[in-house]
Amino acid sequence: MAAAAASADPVVDTDVLVCDNGTGFVKAGFGGENFPRHVFPSMIGRPVLRAEEDLLGDVELKDVMVGQEAADMRRALEITYPVENGIITNWDDMELIWDHVFHDRLGVDPAGKKLMLTEAPMNPERNRKRMVTTMFEKYELGAVQIWWQALLTLYGQGMDTGVVVDSGDGVSHVVAVYDNMVIPHLTRRLNVAGRHITRYFTKLLLLRGYSFNRSADFQTVQEIKEKLAFVARNPDVERRLAAETTVLMENYTLPDGREIKVGRERFEAPEALFQPGLVDVEGDGLSDMVFNMIQDADMDLRPTFYKSIVVSGGSTMYPGLPSRLEYDIQQRYLKEIARGDEKKLRRMGISVLDPPQRKHLVFAGAAYISHTMRNSDAFWITKAEYEEMGVDRCVGNGLALSGDLVLEALVVLAQRVQRLRQRVLGPAPPVAARLEDAQLAAPAPVELGLELLDAPFRREKANASSGIGDLLTRAKRIWNILREKKTPADKRRELVAQLVELVDGHVKDLVMKHDASRVVQSVIRHGTPQAQLAVAKEMTREGMILDLAKAKYGHQLVVKMLRWGGPEARNLVFKQLEGHFARLVTHAQGAVVVEMGWMRGFTGAQRWQMEQELFGPAFRHIQDVARGASGARTLADVLASEQSRAAATGPAEVQSAKRARARVASALFDTVQRAADKAVLGLTVLHRAAADLFIASHGALPGQAAAAAPLLREAVVALAGSRDGGRAACAALGYGSAKDRKVMCRRISDHAAEMAEHEVGALIIARALAVTDDTKMLASTILKPLGLSDTVNARAVAAMARDRAGRKVLLQLLAPLGSWLSPAEKEMMIEYSVPVKQRKADKAAAKDPAKDEAAAVAAFDRATGGADEAAAAAEEEAEAELVPTSKKDAAKRAEELLEVAGPAIADACCLAAPRMIVSGPGMEVLSEAVWVLGVVGGDQRVLEAAAEGCLAEGGTTDAEEEAEAAAAAAAAAARSSSTSAGAAAAASSGDAGSDSDSDSDSDSDSDSDSDDEPAKAAGASDDEEDAGPGPGSDAEDDDDEDEDDAAAAEGGQEEEEEEEEEEPVPETASAMLELPNTALFIKKLLIREGKMEGGAPAKGFAAALLRVMKEHGPEALAAGLASNRGAFSVLGLCEHAAVGPDARAWVKSNMDVVKAAPKCKGKAILLKKLA
């Protein structure tokens, strides 16, 4: 083993120096090394003010500070970067960096040694010549070689052909190499890389309220980025996840000890690599650059390039970047080239290689090849050749190598790469590549590089040619002052007036441009109502608002108008969009506008008109609507009124009303289907549409409701963002087939813990538990993520019980559909029935998933099939026989679920009974748990814990809690089988305190409604991800309220009530008994025991409470009688049917304690009863 390790170690050649000059960092070392010996920032620092040196303590400022030294003291220095976008722009500073490399870092005298330098693609020839001249004239090196970074990246992988995606700190490149030859006309450059992402990250953190505006803060943000940032495979899904949950939220401790929270910024910042417009850079992102470049290559080269895409550079180290790059390229190929043929996509074998050492892959390739060719004079530009031929001829000819030299180098490189992979990743297959007749072409100077250097100025040239260049320049100067927070109000008003005067008459020319649109937006944001109205009127005159609502940049102006504009401006926008809402709501940019109008911009009456467009043309023919009833109403009100009117008119009108209702449902179905296809069901306006779809279908058209359920099954988590969405999700669970419920439960599984913390999400989980027959699947997809399937998560279950939302999940398990539901929630939890014909269609779809969507569409086609009265009558007759959507008996389902979750709930009660009692939601859960698991189920541990909790003194420490958790786990292992059986049977007992009724006539032979479904059908939907353009994906604005806009545009969750602060456990038992919660808890259980059939139990809660009080002695009785509420609790024990005589005897034996107790009404009644 030692010999093998030794053979893999690199042979370092100190006579060969390697220097990789990057925009952000310099990597330096010796030939033959696998990794750079020194890595430091490519920066130069000079003191700003010598007078401030006293503030730095013992730190001494030099006249010039280089590299890491400058980075550490950047708060006191003026920082310059000699390399910009991969090209040296400041040669004096670059020489200081080279001095630092040779003398301070490597500690060598460069004279007479060989040096391997790297250069970025498109490096001008004059730069290459100057580098060679400097190395020979100033440093007197013996030999020099300059190599393109893309070639070295491939050599580091033992390859000679491929596409290199190199993203460092200052610039990103995509370079094509075929058979050791760089193809210059295919090279692409993107001026977005690490430092731009860091700046964008800083901006995003500023929007969250964290200011990092000092020079020294740049490094702090860079560290946050490197630790927390990642690339999202589907940004729209991550945005919805960030808006609806807290799963992406991470804490980060700053150097000063403060802690900040970082959420959606983690993936939004690196997204700039794929959407450069986010950082004001025009052009394609990395994925599009790679795809377009390969498609521009010769047809014969494309298959090779698609299979050999290699990423390198520090900015490719973000988790998820290689898979995102591969996914984007595959999707574009599938759509544009393969035309949807997945077999063709698989044959192409598109692959992105992400070697683990890719951060320093360029250096590794340079070190390998320089060490391998150290003795070959043909490889190097020697000093003798430089002095004899001059720099022009040396640079022109020095890079041309023979095929034999390249063959020798690549063979050695392949061996080195294989050994390195074995050390990092374990054994790997040998590198197989054709190396015969290899020729390495010199990267000749390319004029194209000079053209791309001019790319940042193209936008200004285009503006100048369009005639608005001077206007836009002046407007942007004003805008830059206007957007500053520190601008005084008077100055701001003056600037807005100037800006309004400038843009007047030019709004049409400005709003469609990315940079110019922001200028007009600032008029809306900061202008007076008159200025806002003037802009709105100009847009209205031009008929632009509808086009703007669909435009990539222009839609942001409409969003700002709806958010900040006055009532008159908003009305103008509404009138322009009226009649187009049904289409805009599923448009990538239009959906952002509609959502802002729905959430903030439109009045109630306007929102009602917007809804009516989603209902389709048939809705306008409903007589109550046709009469023009005023005021904002709801679909349920209109349909109920129409049904009453039709019933009073006659059978013909009833049929007509039913057909109109079916067409309304059909229109809503089309809208929801389009939204589901585009994965934009996170919008709250679409939540309302989905809820209205079930309102239109419920009762009269159950077949349509059942056919709509499959549309929402993939978006059940997104629907938890609003109450309308919650209603739609609960209805989909109620009407859906077994397959629909299985898919929804699996989608909930990934976010179960987050959903249980929100009112709507918890209700959706409770609905799933109430209607899903497959209890084994529920145990694995919902109960397990919530910690309810075992006894090791008692602390988490106890916390859930004390949560106002989380309690609903536990109460559904303990008292299904009980009195804990509000009237509105009970309406959402009712049991539905569907036609027998629909049930058969569901089973057929389960056997043949390909027919699933066709069956859903066909259901609506049947209901809206025209004016054939005979067909309508036959359809109505076919739908007459209804069956429940759930086949299993409700009591049996509850019993099976409680058998799984009961032990975990019992352990949570034993662990935190006092804390649960003092908490309102927790007391409710504990009360049901004591009743179901203790009184009815016979679990004495729960009864004892609840009784002890009523007399608890002071809060428990963390150590005590851990000991209690360990004890609970040990007790769970020894739990008797009779206790488990009793707990499981509790759900089926007749509970006077529960409102659940189980009158199901369904079959009891089947354990699961989904047992007959093929595993393939279930698995096909598990791996599906929401895809498609999401609203707000291109939204970008510099205003301080960007995050609020994005949250509104993406259908953010409704604002939740602030959680009440939990009361601590009182210090004394008397104070505990005096709490209203404790008194109510004891009273509720004693009354329920008194009402039990067959009499109060002898071993119930009352017996446990009396036993605990006796164990505590007279002090417990004194504590009980110390307050009026406590005295009534003692009185309840004395009047209990089972333990009353024993309680009275105990109290009489301690009459001295009773007499010494304070006077109160409860004590007086107790003494009267005892007498």
From TrEMBL:
Domain PUM-HD: 477-857
Reactions this protein catalyses: ATP + H2O = ADP + phosphate + H(+)
A Gene Ontology cellular-component term: cytoskeleton
InterPro entries, A to Z: Actin, Actin/actin-like_CS, Actin_CS, ARM-like, ARM-type_fold, ATPase_NBD, PUM-HD, Pumilio_RNA-bd_rpt
Annotated keywords: ATP-binding, Cytoplasm, Cytoskeleton, Hydrolase, Nucleotide-binding, Repeat
Major site of localization recorded for this protein: cytoplasm
Record's compositionally biased regions (Low complexity): 984-993
One protein family per Pfam: Actin
Region (Disordered), start-end ranges: 984-1073
PROSITE patterns: ACTINS_2, ACTINS_ACT_LIKE, PUM_HD
Top-level division of the source organism's lineage: Eukaryota
Localization (cell): Cytoplasm, Cytoskeleton
Gene Ontology MF: a single term: RNA binding
Acidic residues bias: start-end ranges: 994-1012, 1034-1065
Family annotation (PANTHER family): ACTIN
Record-stated family: Belongs to the actin family.
Protein name (record): PUM-HD domain-containing protein
